[in-house]
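Much of the work behind modern protein science is quiet bookkeeping, done one molecule at a time. The protein below has been through that process, and both of its lines are reproduced in full.


***
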Amino acid sequence: MGKVKFKPKSNLGKWSIGLFIVSPILFYISINVPPLIEDPLTSGGIIYGSAFVCGIIGILRKKDYSVLVILSSVTGLFILLFVLQQAFFPNLIDFK
């Protein structure tokens, strides 16, 4: 096992970080401009889920153990699990 770096070296790690950085911006746009995207929770889940998948593939296949890739993968996993929970059990956590 190599040294743990801060910045990613693989392309998948860089994609994971890029999606992680862009996702709050797209989530903000989807909330404030409703005609563009119908459900902001779904769009956020798709984007963060993509960051999670890119990060996990980068960690497992490319052995990219950078701090930012691990952070984006863990955060993407938790947000993806939250979105799936809201999709399958919408009344479990009620925001009203």
